[in-house]
Write a sequence for this structure.
């Protein structure tokens, strides 16, 4: 049985095609999900892709969070469905309170676009099992509002429970607190990060293939629990 | 009809790089003596009915769940009195 991984398209999503392609290259079947649908079409996992959903109006991810599809995603995520939010998808997950904290404008105000070195801090989530804790990977980073913030108590809690999944290495690119690039919920099924693993899945077009492990992790996870 | 104004500001402990950029630009333009600038959002909402306590409770709920992200932002809600519209001009 092939795993079915849904990729949501909001108006203004940009990286839904790349995410679907990464899913296919990893060996699963990508399933297109539309923001106005409440039906998740029996997918085994969901990816919220990068882009500028609803033009980033109000706040990044604030309007997408109330779209019909997110009602279903939130309900299923709370019940354990693996959900990965990339960039704008991470912002949507924070706005939906599936993940704590918020993403704010980069402290230097510039849009940033570069290959970013990260350390995988937690290789025990639904989306990082193909990695080992401490492994260093390089995937693209491209955003204007990627500064991760949360109050000190939340940051301590994330660190204490091993829920910081990725940390920026070398220079902090956006002012994120404690160099946080990605986090997970307590159950480990919901993961959000600012960098883009879906752009690093084959040598021809990417900065390498370091991102492929996200998608193979999800498949392994699904096969393992089936 | 009543107008309700909701001001949304980043919490004091949240860095406001846009406000800082504005502040840094001011001396270049000859505006000295500004110690700090914080940038926020203002929503003007026209209610269909009066701004009674029930309506204001709904506006506060709207601000809490949607207009502001209370993880990083604070908001205030106030009813704007229509009295000062005549001849007040843009500078007060």
């Amino acid at each position: 049985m092939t795993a079915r991984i849904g990729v949501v398209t909001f108006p203004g999503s940009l990286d839904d095609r790349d995410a679907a392609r990464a899913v296919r290259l990893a060996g699963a079947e990508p399933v297109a999900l539309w923001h106005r649908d409440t039906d998740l079409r029996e997918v085994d996992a969901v990816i919220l892709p990068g882009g500028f959903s609803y033009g980033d109006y109000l706040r990044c991810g604030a309007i997408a969070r109330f779209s019909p599809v997110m009602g279903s995603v939130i309900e299923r995520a709370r019940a354990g469905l693996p959900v990965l939010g990339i960039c704008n998808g991470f912002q949507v997950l924070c706005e939906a309170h599936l993940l704590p904290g918020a993403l704010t404008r980069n402290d230097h105000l510039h849009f940033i676009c570069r290959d970013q070195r990260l350390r995988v801090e937690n290789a025990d989530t639904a989306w990082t099992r193909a990695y080992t804790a401490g492994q260093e990977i390089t995937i693209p980073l491209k955003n204007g509002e990627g500064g991760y913030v949360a109050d000190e108590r939340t940051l301590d809690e994330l660190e204490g429970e091993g829920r910081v999944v990725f940390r920026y290495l070398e220079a902090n690119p956006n002012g994120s607190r404690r160099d946080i690039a990605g986090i997970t919920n307590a159950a480990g099924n919901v993961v959000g990060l600012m960098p883009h693993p879906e752009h690093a899945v084959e040598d021809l077009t990417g900065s390498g293939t370091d991102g492929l492990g996200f998608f193979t992790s999800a498949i392994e996870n699904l096969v393992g629990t089936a | 009809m009543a107008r309700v104004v909701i001001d949304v500001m980043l919490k004091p402990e949240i860095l406001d790089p846009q406000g800082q950029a504005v502040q840094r630009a001011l001396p270049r333009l000859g505006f000295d003596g500004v110690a700090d600038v914080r940038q926020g959002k203002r929503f003007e909402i026209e209610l269909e009915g009066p701004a009674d306590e029930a309506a204001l409770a709904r506006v506060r709920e709207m601000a809490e769940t949607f207009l502001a992200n209370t993880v990083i932002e604070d908001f205030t809600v106030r009813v704007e009195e229509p009295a000062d519209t005549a001849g007040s001009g843009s500078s007060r």
Summary: Chain A has one domain: 4-225. The two ends of chain A are 10 Å apart (CA to CA). Helices of chain A lie at 16-26, 68-78, 88-95, 152-160, 212-225.
